[in-house]
Automatic annotation (TrEMBL):
UniProt name for this protein: Putative UspA domain-containing protein
Similarity comment: family membership: Belongs to the universal stress protein A family.
Matching InterPro entries: Csp_YhjQ (IPR005560), Rossmann-like_a/b/a_fold (IPR014729), Universal_stress_UspA (IPR006015), UspA (IPR006016)
Domain UspA positions: 10-145
Signal peptide span: none
Domain of life from the UniProt record: Bacteria
Length: 325
């Protein structure tokens, strides 16, 4: 009689690099691994020069490999200090970071990466590596933005939902995360008719917003009912607004940049039109925020700093819109 071979545990993978913010990333990833009951894998990518190079190239390669191994070992120790008893391993990925992480995502529980990679675009909400991983990985991806979390954040999980299959998968993940944390789940849906949709077809048929909200609430109530039996302890708050994402972002302009980054990094198929619309909404929100704060910039230092930050984000969004073509 032979016993069945147990499949290996799906790890939480922390994609690390040199630079500030990665200690926060590793600590967060270690806590997530412990929360999910999974091992943690510290992954770092580096590229070797092409074969046939000079002796100096070979020496540089050996030096880079040694430094990369030391970096992984440092973060392994940090993870074990953060969560004693956690199973932690390290891996050096030969080749581009994004491709290596995407390849490993099929067998991962979760990937945790920093919000800025080494793609040379420091002002953009997401770096080139995090953008590629978040939009192509086969598992959920968490993009960590260091030093932007409140000292006492609300115990909430927020999920943006629509009526497509990808959004329902996101809803499943959100229920799981809320249950693990004992947190409230906030579902947010932007309802808009085709006459006002920035990416949909234009129509001259008027749509009753009340009717739209009623139909969508019925759909989401049905989906919530299917999940409440599996997650009976999760409190859910559903918010449906008949407005464009831009209007909601202006209403909560202090969180516009983080909201945009979250939308851009969602685990769905890529759609340039949707990306362009979200970026335009964020640029509009940041412009409104900057105009408001500029009016008080000479009176309050925090207003001046907020205005500068919003102008910078507005510029970054517009630059990315132009790059999309």
């Amino acid at each position: 009689m032979t016993s069945a071979v147990q499949p290996p545990e799906r790890p939480v993978i922390a994609g690390i690099d040199r630079g500030p913010g990665h200690e926060d990333l590793v600590r967060f990833a270690a806590r997530e691994a412990a929360l999910h009951g999974r091992p943690l894998q510290i992954a770092h990518a580096f590229e070797l020069p092409l074969p046939g190079g000079s002796v100096s190239d070979e020496e540089e390669s050996r030096s880079a490999a040694k430094a990369s191994a030391q970096l992984v070992e440092h973060y392994e120790r940090l993870a074990r200090e953060e969560v004693p008893g956690l199973s932690v391993s390290g891996e050096l990925i030969m080749g581009p970071a994004a491709a290596g992480l995407i390849e490993r995502s099929a067998d991962a529980e979760l990937i945790v990466i920093g919000h800025r990679g080494s793609g040379g675009f420091p002002r953009l909400p997401l770096g080139s590596v995090s953008w590629q991983v978040a939009t192509h990985a086969e598992c959920p991806v968490v993009v960590v933005r260091p030093s932007e979390t409140a000292e006492r954040p609300d115990n909430r999980v927020v999920v943006g939902v629509d009526t497509d299959d990808a959004s329902l998968q996101a809803l499943d993940v959100a229920f799981l995360e809320a249950g693990l944390r004992g947190a409230r789940l906030d579902m947010v849906h932007c309802a808009s008719d085709t006459a006002t949709s920035p990416t949909g077809a234009v129509t001259t048929v008027p749509v009753d917003p009340t009717w739209v909200r009623s139909g969508q609430r019925e759909f989401f109530d049905t989906e919530l009912g299917r999940r409440r039996d599996r997650h009976p302890g999760v409190e859910v708050n559903l918010r449906i607004e008949h407005a464009s994402p831009g209007q909601l972002l202006v209403e909560a302009s202090t969180g516009a940049c983080n909201t945009t980054a979250s939308v851009l990094s969602r685990h769905t198929g890529y759609d340039a039109d949707i990306t362009r619309a979200i970026l335009q909404a964020c640029a509009t929100a940041c412009e409104a925020c900057a105009d408001e704060c500029s009016a008080h910039a000479d009176q309050h230092e925090h207003c001046r700093l907020c205005a500068e930050a919003c102008r910078s984000c507005e510029k970054a969004c517009n630059e990315l819109i132009q790059a999309l073509g």
